[in-house]
């Protein structure tokens, strides 16, 4: 669950099928470290609640393909309520830049209900920035996305690789903290999402694996996929 925040990184994404996911898992287990925050296979659940403006500014900037854009979200792991991440995910051309802070569940619930003033109690630049966005541009919660994530790390070159499956969504954002929330599957169970985050260059074994699988890079957005399904 540990992801590097506060620095510019490359992020590339691919759609892969179940067989490709199995092959990559074998490779990653032999060459990389399993994320210690997951289970024995490095797997855990990720759930995010996304905010957007009344005009859906962030959604349309992604759909149109603006080179500079952002997403604002709350995030929890394994349905835990102990720590709620408040995050701005920025996109600058070919780089991503995450700004993250932690807030309490109580304050997250107030934020979901429209009370952004709770962020002012945190002595934190990210909280202040999100408050400014929400106050000036009238952000409100729009959708919940969750999925099962298998994560690996290659510390030598600060590389993080994830395989996401069982993507689900609901437009009822009050279900954010409800583990057994009724969710709609976004893909069939044969479609997975491979994501690779890195600073400078990919190691040869990753370049070779991608080449052999003959996968095509895609501009995948779980947020936009969920919005398109929820209407």
Short structural summary:
With 231 residues, the protein is of the alpha+beta class. It has helices at 18-31, 57-64, 105-112, 125-137, 204-213, 222-230; strands at residues 8-17, 33-34, 43-52, 68-77, 84-92, 95-103, 140-154, 159-170, 184-185, 191-198. The radius of gyration is 17 Å and the shape is globular.
Description:
With 231 residues, the chain is α+β, with helices and mostly antiparallel strands. The chain has a single domain, classed as Alpha-Beta Barrel (mRNA Triphosphatase Cet1, Chain A). 27% of the residues lie in helices and 38% in strands. The chain has six helices and ten strands, in the order βαββαβββααββββαα. The chain has helices at residues 18-31, 57-64, 105-112, 125-137, 204-213, 222-230; strands at 8-17, 33-34, 43-52, 68-77, 84-92, 95-103, 140-154, 159-170, 184-185, 191-198. An eight-stranded antiparallel β-barrel has the order 1-6-5-4-3-7-8-10, surrounded by five helices. The relative contact order is 0.23.
């Amino acid at each position: 669950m540990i992801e590097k925040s506060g620095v510019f990184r490359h992020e590339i994404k691919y759609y892969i099928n179940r067989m490709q996911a199995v092959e990559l898992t074998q490779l990653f287990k032999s060459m990389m470290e399993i994320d210690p925050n997951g289970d024995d296979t490095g797997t855990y659940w990720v759930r995010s609640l996304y905010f957007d403006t009344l005009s859906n500014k962030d959604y349309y900037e992604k759909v149109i393909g603006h080179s500079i854009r952002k997403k604002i979200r709350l995030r929890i792991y394994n349905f835990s309520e102990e720590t709620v991440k408040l995050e701005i995910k920025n996109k600058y051309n070919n780089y991503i830049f995450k700004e993250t802070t932690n807030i309490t569940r109580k304050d997250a619930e107030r934020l979901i209900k429209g009370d952004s003033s709770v962020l002012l109690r945190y002595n934190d630049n990210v909280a202040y920035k999100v408050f400014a966005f929400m106050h000036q541009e009238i952000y409100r919660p729009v959708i919940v996305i969750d999925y099962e994530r298998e994560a690996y790390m290659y510390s030598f070159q600060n590389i993080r690789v994830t395989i996401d499956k069982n993507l689900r969504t609901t437009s009822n954002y009050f279900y954010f903290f409800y583990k057994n929330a009724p969710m709609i599957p976004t893909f069939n169970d044969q479609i997975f999402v491979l994501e690779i985050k890195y600073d400078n260059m990919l190691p040869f074994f990753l370049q070779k694996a991608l080449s052999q699988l003959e996968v095509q890079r895609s501009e995948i957005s779980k947020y936009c996929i969920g919005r398109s399904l929820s209407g």
